[in-house]
């Protein structure tokens, strides 16, 4: 019964501390602007509060996360906040179809334009475009360094709806504030405003010295505002005079930040600015752009030449390897031939050659030997007979 009844002073103090110290966000719920918080952050906030520290002779109100969850359940039942459900917003099918059709139409138009341009231009212009694209790609790769900021991720929109189970759970659950006390600062500012209004209405009853002082202060403030307005008009007139005399070449501003959305001191800094926008400035801009383009082309040509040199080096290396291999084979062939010649000469010198001979060849050799012997005998016989 006590939990459902009116909250105690301690519960109000804890809820007030949680309301002003726990990080909150605002959104729309059922057509109303509401503030909501996440359960885990609320538990962390209360564990760092004074109620989590034990006093002399007293125990701490919050000792662990479970005790904080139990206490927040009490606050929820006493309607300091209530549980809500996140519902992600989805785009209707019609909008998605329209976007797809628009994207297709735009892509078709771009392709037609590109085809017309490519057909009308020469090969040189195509090469220049390719070089420019390569330079842009290299610049894009350089920009994608770890120090550079990434593109902003699109956040998905969602809306809040009341949850059926009104229980406090430690986690990423969302809870909407119902309790909205007045902060001390707003109370003090409202009090000071009320006192100032009452004092202004009682101005005739003020002492004479105070009335004279307030009068001089108001006159000084009025003169200051009028001087700023006159300065703003005078600087515009000065700019127009210089611009007309120089034919729009010189842009001179006195106190350029006077009417800008900056602080009081920064509105008087710098004292003046001057810009020259004539033919020389245009030529300088053109020269700078041309120099940048030439640097890009030179870097691209260098990269191409380096690539060619690397390719030539690779081909020469492969050729050298081939020649070395063929030379090695040739050397090996010549060495083997030389060794065989040496062996043949050595064998012929020693007379140690051995050959395989068949029986028929042996018989033929023996017959030839007998014939030779008979011829020799026949030659020798007539010699003896003559003698």
From TrEMBL:
Source organism phylogeny: Eukaryota, Metazoa, Chordata, Craniata, Vertebrata
Cellular localisation: Endoplasmic reticulum membrane
Name assigned to this protein: Translocation protein SEC62
Gene Ontology biological-process annotations: post-translational protein targeting to membrane, translocation
Pfam family name, one: Sec62
Membrane topology annotation: Multi-pass membrane protein
Alphabetized UniProt keyword annotations: Endoplasmic reticulum, Membrane, Protein transport, Translocation, Transmembrane, Transmembrane helix, Transport
Family, per entry: Belongs to the SEC62 family.
PANTHER family, A to Z: TRANSLOCATION PROTEIN SEC62
Gene: Sec62
Disordered: region residues: 91-157, 279-387
Residue spans crossing the bilayer: 187-208, 214-245
Keyword Cell membrane: no
GO cellular component: endoplasmic reticulum membrane
Bias (Basic and acidic residues) ranges: 91-145, 279-317, 327-345
Acidic residues: compositionally biased ranges: 363-378
């Amino acid at each position: 019964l006590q939990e459902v009844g009116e909250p105690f002073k301690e519960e109000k103090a804890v809820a007030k501390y949680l309301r002003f110290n726990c990080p909150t966000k605002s959104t729309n719920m059922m057509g109303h602007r509401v503030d909501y918080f996440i359960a885990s952050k609320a538990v962390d906030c209360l564990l760092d509060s004074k109620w989590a520290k034990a006093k002399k002779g007293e125990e701490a109100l919050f000792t662990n996360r479970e005790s904080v969850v139990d206490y927040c359940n009490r606050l929820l039942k006493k309607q300091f906040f209530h549980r809500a459900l996140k519902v992600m917003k989805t785009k209707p099918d019609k909008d998605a179809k329209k976007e797809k059709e628009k994207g297709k139409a735009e892509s078709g138009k771009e392709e037609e334009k590109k085809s017309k341009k490519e057909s009308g231009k020469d090969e040189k212009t195509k090469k220049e475009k390719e070089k420019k694209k390569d330079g842009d790609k290299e610049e894009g790769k350089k920009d994608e360094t770890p120090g550079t900021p990434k593109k902003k991720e699109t956040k998905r929109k969602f809306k809040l709806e009341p949850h059926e189970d009104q229980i406090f759970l430690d986690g990423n659950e969302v809870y909407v504030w119902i309790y909205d006390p007045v902060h001390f600062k707003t109370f003090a500012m409202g009090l000071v405003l009320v006192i100032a209004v009452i004092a202004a209405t009682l101005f005739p009853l003020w002492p004479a010295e105070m009335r004279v002082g307030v009068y001089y202060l108001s006159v000084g403030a009025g003169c200051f505002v009028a001087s700023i307005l006159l300065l703003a008009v005078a600087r515009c007139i000065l700019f127009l005079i210089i611009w007309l005399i120089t034919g729009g070449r010189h842009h001179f501003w006195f106190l350029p930040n006077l009417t800008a959305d900056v602080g009081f001191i920064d509105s008087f800094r710098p004292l003046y600015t001057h810009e020259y926008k004539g033919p020389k400035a245009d030529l300088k801009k053109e020269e700078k752009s041309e120099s940048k383009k030439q640097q890009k082309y030179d870097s691209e040509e260098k990269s191409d030449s380096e690539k060619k040199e690397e390719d030539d080096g690779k081909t020469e290396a492969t050729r050298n390897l081939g020649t070395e291999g063929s030379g090695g084979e040739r050397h090996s062939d010549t060495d083997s031939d030389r060794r065989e010649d040496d062996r043949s000469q050595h064998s012929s010198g020693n007379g140690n050659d051995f050959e395989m001979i068949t029986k028929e060849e042996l018989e033929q050799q023996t017959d030839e030997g007998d014939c030779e012997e008979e011829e020799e005998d026949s030659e020798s016989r007539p010699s003896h007979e003559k003698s």
